[in-house]
Amino acid sequence: MKFQPKASHFINGAYVEDTGGTPIDVIYPATGEVIARLHSATPDIVDQALTSAKSAQAEWAAMSGTERGRILRRASDIMRDRNHELSVLETHDTGKPLQETLVADATSGADALEYFGGLAASLTGEHIPLGGGDFVYTIREALGVCVGIGAWNYPTQIACWKGAPALACGNTMVFKPSESTPLSALKVAEILIEAGAPKGIYNVIQGYGDVGASLVTDPRVAKVSLTGSVPTGRKVYAAAADGMKHVTMELGGKSPMIVFDDADIENAVSGAILGNFYSSGQVCSNGTRVFVQKGIKEAFLNRLSERLATAKIGDPLDEDVNFGPMVSENQMNIALSYVEKGMAEGARLVFGGKRIEGDGFYMQPTVFADVTDDMAIAREEIFGPVMSVLDFDTEEEVIARANGTEFGLAAGVFTNDLTRAHRIVAGFEAGTCYINTYNLAPVEAPFGGSKMSGVGRENSKLAINHFSEMKTVYVSMNDVEAPY
Ligand code: NDP
Known about the structure:
By secondary structure, the chain is an alpha/beta fold. It has helices spanning 43-62, 65-81, 83-94, 98-104, 106-119, 155-168, 184-194, 209-217, 230-242, 265-277, 297-308, 329-344, 376-379, 395-402, 418-427, 462-466, and strands at residues 9-11, 14-16, 23-27, 34-39, 127-129, 135-142, 145-149, 172-176, 202-204, 221-227, 246-250, 256-259, 289-293, 348-351, 355-356, 362-363, 366-369, 386-392, 407-408, 410-414, 432-435, 450-451, 454-455, 468-475. Helix 2 (65-81) runs antiparallel to helix 5 (106-119) and helix 2 (65-81) crosses helix 7 (184-194). NADPH dihydro-nicotinamide-adenine-dinucleotide phosphate binds at residues 149-153, 176, 178-179, 208-209, 212-213, 216, 227-229, 232, 235-236, 250-253, 284, 381, 383, 409, 449, 454.
């Protein structure tokens, strides 16, 4: 098999197999071909991974930040050097076009390793003077063993967005990728070892939800960082709460994108394309509710359709192709079922809507107009290439409707009115907002959701607070006064 790794799991610096686990077939979404066969972790494998992470942690945390950072930055360089090979692997794992994976996956993972590698040496506590010469100092300490659980849309990126800040702070990690895309996290683990990481600081085990669940409940685990859907997030958060573990929850969304009459239509259409069809729509922060002010509605829809007609759909390994298959037959069928729901609810199909026949899991980029707030396609996360266009008249109306969702991951506005743009953003109930652009997620900026879309932030200096805690030390320079 083309992409068969040496074994299913990577524990304590080496590949490990246990064929007693449930088989996992890795399918190339463009053809349906099985490209690797792995096994889900057995309880013994879960235990080995946690034991490895636990025993490596104290020594890793005792290294200087400079040393830890150097290893992460070396790993970043190796990832960049191997970008092409890793991107080809990511394309086979996810089906995303090579045109995308070359610039948004291993490169994004490398950014995280470089950024947090750079921060590692400057992670400190502070000195707090008290009266009479007494003082307090704080020590920033690692949490311990962290568990990362990933979704299938950005496997390398998620493995690094969780791993890099965790490791920079002196934690160790057990990472479980989605069983749909298990291959690239193994490469991240390999690369860290090649960069000089001590064995056991970053372990990868495969498995379904039950493996994730057994990691979350293990008493050796101090922190859980999940990227996944809201229903999974609820379960994982509840299980983590039982052990009073730290959590980061990067969950789903149904984000609004508002386009005012005065917006630059070409830019707004570009934003809507990026925010709905990049990665065939399988992006958590997508702006899938596109509110277009009535004055430009038809012009917007016409231009959108013209530009969608030029999308190059096909073999994701062809670098000219910019729209690939969905990750799995199941995910494609979910998205197609929403197309049926949209039609049944009376939305107007203005583009696409069909499966593209063949072995791969392709469907057309799809746009509905005349969508109303109560329709399922406007309320539920589809996680596929289905855009809903809704009309609006006034600013007051649209901000209320934009916020009328349990989700709060992202939100965007297109307008040339500067003050209105900032007013709208101030009113958005969302963790990540965009003005006249959409779906950027550079490592330097915090990323995460409000409301049901999540807890905590990834990336930026804020991520450090989610992977470390402060120990407070009171120091008396005077005699101790006691009442009796
Ligand atoms: P799921 O919620 O189905 O799964 C996420 C991960 O959790 C998978 O590895 C899954 O394993 C695992 N899992 C499932 N059940 C449990 C459990 N009870 N305990 C522990 N782990 C469990 O999400 P998808 O993989 O389908 O990914 C799509 C979702 O991810 C969308 O909602 C999307 O919005 C969200 N997402 C959020 C992002 C963000 O940053 N906010 C970014 C990317 C995606 P398995 O797959 O083997 O079942």
